[in-house]
Amino acid sequence: MGKQISIFVENKPGKISKITEILGKAKINLKAMTIADSGSFGIIKIMTDNNQKAYNILQENNFLVSLQDVVVVEIPDKVGSFHKIAKILEKHKINIEDAYGFITTEGIKAVLILKVKNVKIVEKILKERGYKLIEF
Amino acid sequence: MKQKQAPLLNLDFWDKDIETLERKKIKELQLENLNYSIERAKKSEFYRERLKNIKKIKSFEDLEKSPFTTKEDLLKNSPFDFITTDLKNIVRVHSSSGTTGRSKYIFHTKKDIEIWADLVARCLYMIGMRKEDIFQNMMSYGLFTGGLGLHYGAEKIGALIIPAGIGNTEKQIELMRELKTTAIHITPSYLLYLAHYIEEIGLSPSEDFNLKIAVVGAEPYSENTRKKLETIFKINVFNCYGLSEMNGPGVAFECPYKDGLHLWEDSYYMEIINPKTNKIVEEGEEGELVLTTLKREGMPLIRYRTGDLTKIIKEKCNCGRTHRRIMRIKGRVDDMFIVKGVNIFPSQIETVIMGFPEVDKNYQIIIDRKQGLDILTIQVEIKKEFFKGEINELRNLQEKIRDELKEKILVTPIVELVGPGTLPTTTGKAKRVIDKRRL
Predict the structure, then answer these.
(1) % helix, strand, coil for chain A, step of 5
(2) Same domain? B230 vs B296
(3) Superfamily of domain A2-69
(4) Interface list for B 387-426 with A (CB within 8 A)
(5) Using alpha carbons only, what angle is made at residue B397 by residues B406 and B403, rounded to the nearest 5 degrees?
(6) Which of A67, B28, B74, B259 is the most exposed place for a label (fewest CB within 10 A)?
(7) Residue of A43, A64, A116 to mutate for B, most B C-beta atoms under 10 A
């Protein structure tokens, strides 16, 4: 099962650079990041090459963090890849709560991160369809 | 689960005759002592002039003819103007600071100190403290009355006292664990901080200590805060009321029923007035507490305006004590702030915030004015365990807190969520309200 890290941040300059600085010093590679903003605070979601380590180190640095289960699936980096997955999940009446991704090899491979209610079921469905699931 | 609650309804008395004296006799005693106090006060420079027309008081209505004594009176005059006896008979002075920088000084004779200690012993015995207890007094020793006041009372009972004083949290925890402390005296904000600290270092406030009782006072706090503290530590938390002008702690105290504080009417005569009209309100109505010392020799105070807002609980208490109870102090007349023309007390906000298990114990109230409009912002800390990483949960929480606050204080505040441990904490009295409008 894949993981992502949610970080609570007050909406103040310097908060993100603090996070990237901590991760950089710990030699953790940041793979992808999204930010949801809600006025005075926001939530940053990150995916790294070592999520458990990143989680621990952020917590040690007094960040409010939470480790969440997500589906991390490899897809071809070409037109229509995401659509295929979206279609499969639609058929199973599964709602995608949040999604983002990153390219691993330009024109060949990309990684899609999906936040869904039941990660295990979605993983099973995608596996059966021949998708490769990734764990960080 | 380990059951470590102290027996709740320990209905023993320290001084049964006085504590259960019938109302009629209390009133007789009060009238007698009021006359004693007034006559005694007339020996002081300050009251000589002021009370010269006050003859023997035959009813409580007669007392209303004498003027109030205010904080300003204490600050304006020389402290010695209030002494009724030769200075050689004064054995102790306590003081509390006024907002303007000058201090109020309160003088005590040896007998005053003894009577005060006995009152405090009465309070502590009422909540179950006995000789066998190990009492860690986590209040400032010195000019502040909280430290020495409780110390003398607990010593009178015969408890083992740890005069720990305030601050140095690590040391406090070490003392509590090494010496197996069973009772503490502490401010609510410091006890909340202590809980946080104990959890931070990986200990359990409820399982790793021998605590049974906490006397929590010196700052107003809400019923929800009490419940929160009781749940965290699995102890009984009792509210304590006092002010240095009336000796200090021990003026009023909760009994095991925890439903209002018995104000010791053999030592203090209480009136509740409307702070705007200065008229006495109906019994049971809210107003400012006005107190007259009935026994103090060194420095009697007549009709002293405490600035504290409360009301009298008319009903008899099940514990058997006949001294009337006052409600938990709602706030100080001067704590109240006005936002958009509405009177708000920090305690109202605290009550709402403490009702949310998702937020931590610390909070801050910020009042600002932008383009002529008051803006009320409440900052609360999210609890670690509650954070699941979803922004919607936080938005919902924010809205729920905001709506409940609006219902209670009639002003819609901005609720800001911040991370745990981000708001400033103090080990002494907490500064919760920041009014930027006056800066």
Answers:
(1) 30, 45, 25
(2) yes
(3) VC0802-like (3.30.2130.10)
(4) 387-391, 394-395, 398, 414, 416-422
(5) 15
(6) B28
(7) A64
Would the pLDDT of A36 be above 90?
A: no
Give yes or no: residues B295 and B362 share one domain.
no
Among partner residues B382, B395, B398, which is closest to A8 by beta-carbon distance? B382
CA A27 from chain center: how many Å?
19
Closest partner residue to B382 (CB to CB) among A5, A64, A68 is A64
Number of domains, chain B: 2
What pTM was estimated for this model as a whole? Answer: 0.71
**A73, A114 in Cβ contact below 8 A?**
yes
Domain ranges of chain A: 2-69, 70-133
- What would the pLDDT profile of B273-327 be if each residue is shown by its tens digit? 998 899 999 999 999 999 999 999 999 999 999 999 999 999 999 999 999 999 9
Mean pLDDT of A112-134: 93
Q: What's the ipTM?
A: 0.80
Contact B196, B361 (CB under 8 A): yes
- Specify the residue for token string 């601050």: B167
Which residues in chain B come in under a pLDDT of 70? Answer: 1-10, 97-101, 425-430, 438-439
| Domain end call among B267, B301, B332 | B332
- Report pLDDT for B422: 83
AA letter at B97: S
Q: Which domain holds residue B283?
A: 16-22+106-332
Question: In Å, how far is B420's CA from the nearest CA of chain A?
Answer: 7
